[in-house]
Every structure is written in C-alpha cells, then in structure tokens.
Recover the amino acids of this structure.
C-alpha cells in the first residue's frame, strides 16, 4: 500500500504553486492512489492534496462522507487539474489541516461552488458542491497553489490552538 | 461623571475567576465596558475597562476585590483613566490590515516585526501569538491587526515585509480587513 507520510509545515513543498500540466494517466492515477491510501490512514481526514504527500501534480481527493458532519455530498471525489468556475454563499467555518496538526483557523469559504476537473480516466467533468464538501474542495485546491489555510485568516482572533485531535482537511 | 479604571488580573486558571470578579463589579455598581480575557497555557488573564459610579473610589473598589485577589492568588494592577483618555484616541482615517507571520520558532520574531511596524508609524490594535508543535518542529504564529496611515506607507511596508520574510525565514501574509456589510 503506497501510504505516504503527510508533510507538515515548514516543508517547502507546501508553499509552492504547482505548475505541472501533465496528463500522464498512469502517473496521475498513481498520485490519486497514494492520496486515497494515505487519507484512509488518517481517521477523520476528509481530503488531501498532492503536495501534502510530496507529489507535484495538480491532484486532490475529497471525501466528506468520512465525517459525521458530511451533509450533502458526492462521496469520494478524485480531481485532476481542478478549477473553480463559480463560488457563492460565503460563510466562515473552523478548519484544521493535517499539515498543521495543532492549529485551527476560522476561514471564509463559499458554501456553493461549481468546478471543473478531469476524473481518473482523464475525462472532463463539471460538478457543483455544497456545504462542507465545497469547503473541503476549496481547502485542497488552495494547497495546489501553495496557499495554506492560515493564509486565509482575516483577523487576529481567527487562529486557535487545537486541544483535541479532530477531523482534518 | 463616571470614572474609568483599567484593571488587569492574571492567575492560575480555574473555573470561577470571571464570575468572582464580575460579582464584585455588579455589587459595587461598576460596569464592565471593554474587556479581553483569555487562557494563557495554565494561567488566565483578564484586561478590563471598568466604569465606576461617581460615589465609588478606586480605593474602595480595590478593597472590595481584595478577598478575591487573595483567594484566587491573582496578580492585579489598576489604572484610573484621565478624562481625555476615556473617548479613545483621536484617529485620522487609516487602512486596517491583518498581518500574519509564521515559521519555525526562533528568538526575535515579534521584536523584528514590531520594529518594522513602528518604523512606518503603523499602529498595532491587537496582537496574538501561538506556539505549537508541528510534528517535532516548533511553529510560531504571530497575528497583528494594524492601522496603516495611507497607501504610500502600505507600499513601503509591503517592501519591508519582503525583506523581513527573508531575514526571519518566515511566511508572511498581509491583507486588508474585509468588512461584510449584511
């Protein structure tokens, strides 16, 4: 099982924008498999992005059905070269991240997004996500641009030390 | 005319500190105006601005609080505000920004950032720091809310931050405070 260690800050990969545009199906599916196997090792984790496990491809996975507060969702999403097309219904919620195991932050995200990507067969897809799933996708997509959830806080009162390990994006 | 007193108190964290202090304020006719109270590891710290009824003296307030100060082993300071301080500072229009600095913990992060801020005559209105373990590394996070005098200073300050980022080997995010009009 290709389980990878999750990189934590200040690993330099986490602050780099991924510019790779590969459409190599074998490589991209290898990355997706690594992401899924690694996510499954972390209870409560609902998403991972390639740079968090040291891959430099624009791939993320999200599966909020793993969380008790999943809400409306589409199960496991494997997204290659994802792009957000529309975002609306902004709301602040508290996020964690496996790359910062002991911090939580209040982050403003859209509760409704329309996005495009390629699936594991490299077919173009276009989907709409709502609520927690939409938030998780935005968090993971940020990772592809080297943007960490801390970078999204809006005030000095938006950052918190985690007291108990909980679900992470 | 009401009098204003700034009170700070810090002691070992335990349930009941806020209730004990505010009971005295209530019973002596004081009003809790602005306040900030937070846990600092094993301690609990409060910063309060109290308005007192005219008839109450600072000495009698201190006396009323003394049993609690003693029982809870609090370190307390009091400072009566001058009339001109009560309305807060007279401020000209400023650009409110949030400045986030984070990286591996090492001495001097807050000092160097605060120095850069003050050199541009930028005012700090709030500052918080967090030290957290990040899988064997110690991460330092510093967040400031600041008031930048004008756009020219903002441009210069952004350049200062680029230099500071290299010097301190940290990540820095500076963003305008967004106000959601609902």
């Amino acid at each position: 099982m290709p389980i990878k260690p999750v990189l934590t800050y200040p690993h330099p990969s986490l602050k780099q924008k991924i510019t790779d545009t590969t459409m190599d199906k074998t490589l991209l599916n290898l990355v997706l498999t690594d992401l899924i196997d690694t996510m499954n090792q972390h209870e409560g984790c609902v998403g991972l992005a390639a740079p968090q496990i040291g891959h430099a491809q624009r791939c993320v996975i999200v599966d909020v059905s793993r969380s008790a507060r999943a809400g409306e969702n589409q199960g496991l999403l494997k997204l290659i070269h994802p792009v957000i097309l529309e975002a609306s219904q902004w709301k602040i919620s508290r996020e964690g991240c496996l790359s910062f195991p002991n911090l939580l932050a209040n982050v403003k995200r859209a509760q409704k997004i329309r996005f495009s990507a390629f699936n594991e067969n490299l077919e173009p897809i276009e989907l709409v996500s709502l609520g927690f799933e939409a938030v998780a996708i935005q968090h993971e997509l940020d990772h592809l641009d080297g943007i960490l959830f801390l970078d999204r806080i809006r005030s000095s009162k938006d950052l918190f030390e985690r007291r108990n390990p909980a679900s992470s994006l | 005319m009401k009098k204003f007193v700034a009170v700070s108190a810090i002691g070992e964290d335990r349930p009941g500190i806020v209730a004990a202090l505010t009971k005295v304020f209530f019973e002596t006719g004081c009003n809790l105006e602005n306040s900030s109270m937070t846990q600092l590891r094993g301690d609990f710290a409060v910063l309060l601005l109290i308005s007192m009824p005219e008839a109450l003296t600072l000495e009698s307030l201190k006396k009323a609080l003394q049993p609690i100060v003693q029982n809870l082993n609090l370190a307390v300071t009091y400072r009566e505000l001058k009339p001109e301080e009560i309305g807060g500072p007279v401020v000209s229009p400023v650009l409110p920004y949030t400045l986030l600095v984070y990286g591996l913990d090492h001495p001097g992060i807050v000092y160097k950032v605060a120095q850069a801020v003050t050199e541009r005559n930028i005012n700090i209105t709030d500052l918080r720091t967090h030290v957290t373990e990040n899988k064997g590394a110690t991460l330092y996070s510093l967040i400031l809310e600041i008031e930048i005098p004008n756009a020219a200073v903002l441009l210069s300050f952004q350049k200062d931050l680029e230099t500071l980022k290299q010097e301190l080997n940290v990540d820095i995010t500076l963003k305008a405070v967004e106000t959601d009009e609902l």
Helices of chain A lie at 25-40, 131-144. Chain A has two helices and six strands. The beta strands of chain A are 47-49, 59-62, 77-97, 100-118, 124-130, 159-161.
